[in-house]
Design a protein that fits this description.
- 60% of the residues lie in helices and 1% in strands.
- The protein is built from 30 helices and two strands.
- It is flat.
Length: 706
């Protein structure tokens, strides 16, 4: 019997598996990509689908799992949808006049399927979901099921299991050395120690959803605490975002509405004002909230209950609904909060541009530099004769760095720097006379003019709105026989901080608009002045009158940057050249000294050298020794040895004529300078030579230290 039932269910499941259903396949792909189940269910809810779909078996079709009851619908024993405790409040919202879109948004916000409102409110949800589109099997005529069979099937269908959605590995891909081959059949659940009842309570559900709904309905009359759910007319996400903004402000919504009505920004900055303006009710939201409030206005108690059920953002919207022209008033408040800062930024830019125009016209160094560049350019192009240029456009300044000489290394700009260094170095510092030009490079005069025009229009708009509101308040104040300032203070419960001493009959926004108009006129005058000044600059340099200011000063700034890069390069090259020249001079001097020493030795070795030539040889040798050779020269050491031997009475023969001459010259020089007798290394060398050689045979000239 059980086998027959299973076979029948298999035959009936003709639809695609849930995981391959085109409507839900992307959600199972999200799971495969590693997204958590919560994120996938949020995506289902966002797309208006039931997130509980993910609790079903992905290997079976959705149709077979939703329509497991009898082939034919049978009798609807469930609670009508409109009376279902889970959905009854949404049908009440419809009765109170809220639009269908607002009710569906409330369903979506509460995590429910918004399409539930498309079902028949007179039939139960379960009946309508389980009876749709079930086909009968061909060739099989089913008889009426017995009560026992129905109870058995019903009992079977009530068991719901929690699903662990993993990606099983194909058994054919499991190798013998894999972990899955080794652990296959290693653990038997039946042999494990565990609490079966605990397992079933955690991972299976045998309760009937219809019973749960009835239980919830029966519990409504109980004395237990009822969880409060706010009624939302507006979009859930919008309501949540608005609630976050309002929670940060920590102000009563009626106070905010009163401030907006009086166009009093208080301590609100531009960001807060912009956020509050964003959550003003739209026409659709206004209509829905208005209908909701009217339907609950039968008594003050019901009205209070209805207001308490609204979310924070909706309560703010209701408070703002009584403010006339709230959007325009917010525009005025925003403009007021930003006016001073915005105007200062524009005026600062105007001043920068004005100063830069004055600097480029009055700089004497820039004027002389341009003259040098013109002369140099003419000389390069024509040799200084013939068809000479009388001037050049500013873009030519940037070409000086690009143009190279025939050596393909030196640029015209580098040569210009060298020329200035040789003739008038003060021109190299021409930048000192242009301190504001760098900042003016980012200023666009046309943009400033457009900004000023827009601000002027906004001042006019604020002025009109302020006058309109002021006239309304003046009429109201006249009826009460008080001033506008007193009326505003009265409405603000005496908390109005605006100084109305000089304008008893003007609103704060009217006073602001009048002052703003004065400041704007001053700024417009400065703008006109800088336009004239810049026009004179273009004429001064012979440029096109339509040339944008940022392009003009940007070109000068780029030239300044290139120029000082060239100065740095030239300085570096000149320093390197000077270093090389000093090194070459030192090498040349050393070489000349070596040549002189060599010549003196050659003359002394030639024989018959005079005492003068010996003295010259000695001077050369002494100089060579003194100037830091690595070790004393052999000839000098030999001369020293010979001199020492001679003092001892040793014989020095004619073969050592050079040594004798050197000794004589050295001795004579020492006598003239009254210096001490030879000693130190010379004496040591002489002693060594004396021990080594016989008295009558000195041998060849001594070498090395000896």
């Amino acid at each position: 019997k059980k086998h027959d039932d299973d076979e029948e269910e298999e035959e009936e499941d003709t639809g695609p598996p849930l995981k391959e259903d085109p409507e839900y396949t992307k959600y199972f792909k999200m799971l495969k990509m590693g997204l958590p189940m919560g994120a996938v269910q949020n995506a289902l809810q966002r797309d208006g689908k039931d997130p509980g779909i993910m609790d079903l078996d992905p290997e079976k079709s959705l149709k077979s799992q939703l329509n497991k009851d009898d082939d034919e619908p049978g009798e609807d024993m469930g609670v009508p949808l409109k009376d279902d405790p889970e959905y009854t409040k949404y049908f009440k919202m419809l009765k109170m006049g809220l639009p269908m879109g607002a009710v569906q948004n409330a369903l979506l916000r509460d995590g429910k399927d918004p399409t539930i409102m498309d079902l028949d409110p007179e039939k139960s949800v379960e009946f309508q979901r389980n009876s749709g589109g079930k086909k009968k099997k061909k060739g099989k005529k089913k008889g009426k099921k017995t009560k026992a069979e129905k109870e058995k099937k019903e009992k079977k269908l009530k068991v719901r299991r929690k699903k662990l959605f993993w990606n099983p590995i194909d058994e054919g891909k499991i190798k013998k050395h894999s972990i899955w081959y080794k652990v296959k059949g290693a653990v038997d659940m039946g042999k494990l120690k565990y609490d079966a009842s605990e397992f079933d309570s955690l991972f299976t559900d045998t309760s009937n959803p219809a019973d749960k709904k009835k239980k919830v309905g029966a519990g409504d009359s109980s004395s237990g605490p009822k969880q409060k759910k706010s009624t939302q007319v507006i979009d859930g996400k919008r309501g949540m975002n608005g609630g976050i903004i309002l929670a940060r402000l920590k102000m009563e919504y009626s106070v905010i509405a009163n401030m907006v009505d009086n166009m009093d920004s208080g301590k609100f900055d531009a960001t807060q004002l912009r956020a509050l303006q964003e959550f003003l009710p739209t026409d659709e939201e206004h209509q829905g909230l208005d209908s909701y409030i009217k339907s609950a206005s039968t008594s003050e108690e019901k009205k209070k209950e209805a207001m308490d059920d609204l979310c924070a953002c909706e309560k703010y919207m209701v408070a703002m609904m009584v403010v006339s022209e709230s959007a325009s008033k917010f525009d005025c408040m925003l403009f007021q909060s930003q006016f001073e800062c915005s105007l200062k930024e524009i005026v600062d830019e105007i001043i920068k541009l004005s100063n830069a125009c004055k600097e480029v016209r009055t700089s004497s160094r820039l004027q002389k530099l341009m003259a040098v560049i013109l002369t140099l350019g003419n000389h390069i192009n024509t040799g200084g004769t013939g068809n000479l240029a009388s001037g050049f456009s500013l873009d030519a300044l940037l070409k000086l760095d690009e143009a190279k000489a025939f050596d393909k290394k030196t640029s015209v700009l580098q040569y210009l720097v060298k020329l200035l260094k040789q003739n008038d170095e003060s021109l190299i510092q021409f930048k000192e006379e242009l301190p504001t030009v760098a900042e003016a490079g980012s200023v666009m005069l046309d943009s400033l003019s457009a900004d000023m025009k827009q601000m002027k229009e906004e001042v006019e708009k604020v002025k009109k709105t302020a006058e309109k509101e002021g006239n309304r308040l003046r009429r109201e104040a006249k009826e009460k026989n008080i001033t506008v300032a007193e009326l505003i203070a009265e409405k603000a419960d005496g908390s109005n901080n605006n100084d109305q001493t000089d304008y008893k009959d003007k609103t704060p926004m009217e006073v602001f608009s009048l002052n703003a108009e004065v400041e704007m006129n001053k700024a417009l005058t400065k703008t006109d002045d800088v336009k004239d000044s810049y026009g004179e600059v273009l004429e001064y340099f012979g440029e096109d009158e339509k040339m944008p200011s940022n392009e003009f000063f940007g070109t000068i700034n780029k030239f300044i940057s290139n120029f000082y890069a060239a100065v740095e390069f030239v300085d570096k090259m000149e320093a390197q050249k000077l270093k090389e020249e000093k090194r070459a001079a030192a090498l040349q001097a050393k070489h000349e000294k070596k040549l002189a020493a060599k010549k003196a030795r050659e003359e002394a070795m030639a024989g018959g050298a005079s005492e003068k030539s010996a003295m010259a040889a000695s001077d050369a040798l002494s100089a060579d020794f003194t100037e830091g050779g690595d070790r004393p020269k052999p000839t000098l050491a030999a001369a020293a040895a010979a001199a020492s031997l001679k003092r001892r009475g040793s014989k020095v023969d004619a073969k050592n004529g050079f040594i004798a001459a050197a000794v004589a010259a050295t001795k004579k020089k020492a006598e003239e300078e009254n210096g001490p007798p030879l000693g130190g290394i010379a004496a040591m060398a002489a002693s060594a030579a004396a021990r080594k050689k016989s008295v009558n045979d000195i041998g060849p000239p001594a070498g090395g230290i000896a």
